[in-house]
Design brief:
By secondary structure, this protein is of the alpha+beta class. Helix content is about 35%, strand content about 30%. The chain contains 4 helices and 6 strands. It has a 6-stranded antiparallel beta sheet with strand order 1-2-3-4-6-5, covered by helices on one side. Helix 1 runs antiparallel to helix 2 and helix 2 runs antiparallel to helix 4. The chain is globular and about 35 Å long.
């Protein structure tokens, strides 16, 4: 885990604060990612409503990374002025698109929850797996 208030960001531009946590991509570690995010965002004085939304986003994205990733997953939180960037990466295969032959209650609603709570989301394939980004507005 790293926590930094430096002007250089892992996002490629200046940001106020950032922290990175890397864990094995296993269901047992999802709660650690969730608690890490909750504690860190409280330390950063993110208001309770935005913090709750961010923790739910982290929970859904880490859950997906644990389910579909292979070796490890990483959680990057970066607070840039009034925007919280949540980036979860894993070493899993290509993102599987929603299949219409699977009922929603069997497929899960995690992606829909993330899209509802976040101002923007992006999924990218990387050389080593997959990266999911969500941005959430945070009042000062």
């Amino acid at each position: 885990m790293t926590d930094s208030a430096s002007p250089t960001s892992l996002l490629g531009r200046p940001c106020r604060r950032q922290a990175l946590l890397t864990l094995p991509a296993q269901e047992a570690h999802v709660s650690a990612a969730r608690h890490f995010a909750a504690d860190l965002l409280e330390t950063w004085s993110v208001p309770a409503g935005e913090r709750d939304s961010a923790v739910l986003i982290v929970d859904e994205l880490a859950g997906n990374a644990a389910q579909y990733g292979h070796e490890r997953m990483s959680l990057l939180l970066a607070l840039d002025h009034e925007t919280l960037h949540i980036v979860v990466t894993d070493s899993g295969p290509a993102v599987e698109r929603h299949r219409p032959d699977i009922a929603p209650d069997e497929h899960g609603r995690g992606t829909g929850i993330v899209q509802y709570l976040a101002q923007s989301t992006e999924v990218r394939q990387t050389r080593g797996g997959r990266e999911v980004r969500a941005c959430l507005r945070c009042s000062p």
